[in-house]
Amino acid sequence: MPIRFLTAGESHGRGLVCIIEGIPANLELSSEYINRELERRQRGYGRGGRMKIEKDRVQILSGVRFGKTLGGPIALFIENKDWENWKEKMAIEGERPETAVPFTRPRPGHADLAGGIKYNQRDLRNILERASARETACRVALGAVCKRFLEELGVFVGSYVVSIGPLCPPIEEQDLIKRHQLAEQSEVRFPDPSKDKEFMELIDRAKEMGESLGGVFEVFAVGVPPGLGSHVHWDRKLDGRIAQAMMSIQAIKGVEIGLGFEAAKRFGSEVHDEIGYKEGEGYFRYSNNLGGLEGGITNGMPIIVRCAMKPIPTLTKPLRSVDVLTKEEVRAGKERTDVVAVPAASVVGESALAIVLADAFLEKLGGDFMEEIKERYRIYLEHVKSF
Questions:
Q1: Tens-place pLDDT, residues 243-256
Q2: Could you tell me how far CA 370 lies from the centroid of its own chain?
Q3: CA distance 30 to 27
Q4: Is 60 exceeded by the pLDDT of residue 52?
Q5: Residues with Cβ < 8 Å from 141, sequence gap 6 or more?
Q6: Three-class SS string for 277-321?
Q7: Which residues does residue 76 pair with via DSSP β-bridges, in sequence order?
Q8: pTM assigned to the model
Q9: 18, 115, 124, 308: which could form a disulfide with 138 (CB 3.0–4.6 Å)?
């Protein structure tokens, strides 16, 4: 069964609930593994005060017994530590207390106004709580489950930051996994920790100005075989599914695969990845300009996805807005916020890619338990080598 998942919960509600279905039985999985990924999401210079409150820890509620998946839905719960400060203002039942002051000054760039109009909510907190990037904690938890599955098939998913605001230092040509490892040592997840000071100074200046910053990050997957996805229908093309998953992450406004827009500036001979063959190993490419995908199908090269994140819409020096009750011009409302969240978003991007790839593997191989899937994968890899 392909992967399906749902998330529920508000930013300042009791907690976040995540359910994922389609993970095969007999996959080793622990809360510690998921917690390591959740902790990575909370790192990064420029994060706000919320990260000092929330120390995300997952509770596995169902679908796992004695450290192995059962084949049924896996339910996860992540408690919001800040609930204690919000349980009156975010109460599920009862009368509205005086402390629950309506949020009526929509922030440009946020879902506040568009969501308020769509759902007929004059208290825009009823929109912003669910639209908040707090929901990405669920995506990371679910992505961790899928990463654990992909590990069993020899696939590694990683990421690193390419730029923050206007600062885009050159990145040394090196192995993708090495870039990821270096990024893990950086305060901003840039694959050269010696550049951290420049990034931190930029972030500090933005904070002093009451501004926020966006940026670009790359997500990759190595060890992916050719043949995932399909060319036969629009909704089965894997590059389309990856792009949709990335665009669903809060604040992502652009996605490229491989060279992306740069490919449009070059001659075809400078873009398309020439094909070679080695006896006993199979086909290979002399380059990876197309980011591991051709015709909506993986070609055996690493998948490389680049995402552009807009600056966070909550500013300490708010932009002009209009109060939805009085219709008077006002300054937009303020919430506790980060200056920059690009490093965290790169970790969320890893999870988005992992979920799509796990789904594509299960679509390709089928199977209900890990031993069955691994045997089918072994046979498929023999086909790839002999083709």
A1: 999 999 999 999 99
A2: 25
A3: 10
A4: no
A5: 18, 34, 37, 38, 58, 76, 78
A6: EECCCEEEECCCCCCCEECCEEECCCEEEEEEECCCCCCCCCCEE
A7: 18, 60
A8: 0.96
A9: 18
